[in-house]
Every structure is written in C-alpha cells, then in structure tokens.
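TL;DR need structure tokens for one chain.
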Amino acid sequence: MTEQQGAQNKKGGLMASTVVVSSMTMLSRVLGLIRDVVLARYLGVSAGTDAFFVAFRIPNFLRRLFAEGAFNQAFVPVLSEYRTNGTQAAVQLLINRVAGTLGMTLGLVSVVGVVGAPLLITLFAPGFGDDPAKRALAVEMLRLTFPYLFFIALTAFSGAILNTWGRFAVPAFTPVLLNISLIGSALFLTPLFSDQRMAVALAWGVLIAGMAQLLFQLPFLTRLGLMPKPQVSWRDPGVKRILALMAPAIFGVSVSQINLLLDTVLASLLETGSVTWLYYSDRLVELPLGIFAIAIGTVILPSLSKKHAAASTEEFSRTLDWAIRMVLLLGLPAGLALLVMAKPLLSALFQYGEFGAFDVHQASLSLQAYSAGVVAFMLIKVLAPGYFARQDTKTPVRIGIIAMVANMVFNLLLVWHLRHVGLAMATALSAWLNAALLYRGLVSAGVYRPSPGWTAFFVRLLGGAAAMVAVVWWLNGHSDLWHTGLAWQRGSFIVAVVAAGALAYFLGLGLLGLRPRHLRRGPV
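>> reply
TL;DR here they are.
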C-alpha cells in the first residue's frame, strides 16, 4: 500500500467515525427538539421556565467547561500518548488515578454548589432578585440540578476513554438519555406539582439523567478491560500534566459557553421571557453544532493526538484541512437556513399551548442573530483541537480571553438598544473573532498549511448555498402552513422545505464540480 493510499484510508476512517458520531448525535438532537416542544407546550414562557433554564444552565455550563471542554482536551492527548508509548499497566494506572482525583474533586464541588445555591443564583441571575418567588424557585431547582455535574463529568471521563479506543458510538448516544428523562419528567412528574412549581419536575429529571448516563457507559469500559479503580493521587505525573493543561484550556475551548452564560446574566435583567427566548434560539443553533462540528471535533482529537505523538506533521495538517472543509461544507448552509427559516422553524416546533406568536417572534430575532455565528461556532470546535492535541494550552488562553472581553464589550454596546437580540449578536461577533485568531495561530505556527484548491472549493460552496437559499425562500413565501396548520402539517412542511433546500444545495455543488472524492482527499 502506498503512503497516499494509506492516507486516504485514514481519511475514510475519519469519515466513517464522523458519520457514526453524527448519526448518534442527530438522534439525540432530534429527541432534544421533541423535548423542547414538550416543554414549550406544557410550561410555555413563565417565571418557572426562566428559573429552570438558569438552574440547568449553571451545571450544564460547568459540564461543558470542565468535563467535555477543558478536561477532554487535556485528558485525551495525555491518554493517547500513554497508549502509544506506554504499557497497559501504565494506562490503567493513569485511568485509576484520574478517576479518583476527578471524582473526589467533583464531589466536593457538588457539595459547595448545593450549599451555595442562593449565592450562585444571585451571581448568575442577578435580575431574579426583583422577584423573590422566581429566585426561591431557581435556588430550589439548582440544588437538584447541581449534582448533575458530578455524574455527567464522570460520564465525559468514561466517554473520553471510549473515544480514545475508537468506540465513538456509545458516548455519542449517551445524551439521548437526558432527553428521554426530561420528556418523561414533563409528561409524568409535572402533574405531581402545583402550577407554579411544575418546573421542579424537570430539575428532578436532570438529576435522574445524570445517574443514568454514567451507569450506561460503565459496562462498555468493562468490556475493554479499562474499568477504573479510583485512586486519589495529586502527585501522579500524568494527573499533574492533565491539571496543568486543563487550567488554561478552560478558557481556550469554552469561551462560547462563557459567553452564553454572560448572556444569561444580562438577560435576567431584561423583561420576563428573555432567558427563555435566548434558550430556544440557542437550542436550534446547537442542532448543526452538535450533529456536525462537535462530531468532527470529537473524532479528530484522538487522531491529531496520535499524529502529534508520532511526529507526523504532514498528516496532522491534512487532518485539520479535512475537518475545516467539512465544517464549511455543512456549516454554511446550516447557518443560512437558520437565518432564512428562523420564524417558520420556531413556529412549527414550539408555537403550541403556552408558547405564543409573540414568543416566536422574539425568539426568531435572537435566532437570526445567532445564525450569523454558526460557521464560527463550528470552526472553533475543530480549530481548538489543533492546539490541544499538541498540548499547547497557552495560545488558546490568550485568544479566549481576547474573545471573552470582546463579547462583553459587544454586549454592553448592543444590549440596551437591541435587548436580548443584542446579546445573541454579540456572541456571534465574538465567536468570529475567536475562530479567526485560532486559525491565524495555526497557520503562523506552521502547524496547518491549507491544501491547494481552496478558491474553487469556496466558489462551489457559495454557488450551492445560493441555490439553497433561493429554494427555501421561495417555498416559505408560498405557504403559511408553518404557522396555520396542525402539528403534523407544520412538521411535514418544515421537513419538506429542509429536504428541498438540501437537495438544491448538493445539486448546486455537483453542477459546479464537487465530487465525493474531494471530501476524502481534499479540494482540487
């Protein structure tokens, strides 16, 4: 087998793994949309839903920050290096000591979070202080949701091990259990609470989901012979390296999450409903982000880490090039589709029961603002691993701090005139700054060298995107089923529009010369 054939086979492996992760993630995201439809129908927009989304966002933010964000980016490269250059005993010892140290730390943090729930609500939702009932409800729910951090962080730890061994499907499927738990809680637990406290049922659903997700992954670790036997060891060299990489990585990989949390803080100061409008618009942005960008980023991190450990500079660059192309190929039409279809999507999915036309309009405005940053959000997910795979956390820290400060400046400039829409727009602008600086850093360091043919690739993307926007715009303007039809009619119409837009996009790409082989070997 030639070197070129071997490289192509590796790219095929990355593509196959990405498809597996994307498929599992799509299932989770679809169930997530169903979950949000159920929540909108049964709870609508109220003080209770605002309180729940804040109580859920705080531990969820910490999960993305410490578990799936900084911890993953620090742990996977070190674990890959141990697997490549060390013995099985050394790998198992590292897993045991990381499990024990992480578990003890998370346990202490969870206790502090439960005890300090009133302070956390004051810190992250200062606007709730004007409504004592809303604040009390948020504190009660945070005490239920905060321990979710303990379980889900250990779940992310288990998933990182499975991903390093190429078992991508199980970690990708695991989030399905959260959506099932929340849907079940909305349907079966809310009747047990008064109208003012129905959202508390969802907090119980979050806690149940955390335990279920961790228990689900443990048998698969056992099959690999990698079931942790926790040992607390702060002095272990591997643990110390992971901690050293993790501290700055918190900023480097999770800036977008910090920005979203800052949006929540400011949104709590605005009119009631602002937190919920931002939540639902952010949920639709998370759909392409999770299905495509997070899947690609998850798959390439172990691959990049192995290539760095093996000093394969050319393959490292080619893998990044492939990931960037895939993100642009899928992210550009996704962002444009959310921009054009913001109101139809929100109306078809959520305008039932307590979620009215006014709420759809307000959420659609923030969704359009968020959609301008979709490509940037996705690029960050594949550019950041280019640093963390090389165990370089200092550069993303500097970039992350710059982007976070910029986001706050944009927030203060835009929020008072554009309200919640200004918060979404500020997040999109800071994401573009973050992505641009990450890209420039990789190119300047000589780590990434773009393959030939990018001009032709961009022309094809723009042509296909133009065809898609024209078709979607025309279909939306020639029907009002998305807001007047029954639930099944609205859903069918949206599916038809999405399918027609996707068909127009890929036909446009094909007519302009893009072929499947280009997605394996790079643009020509």
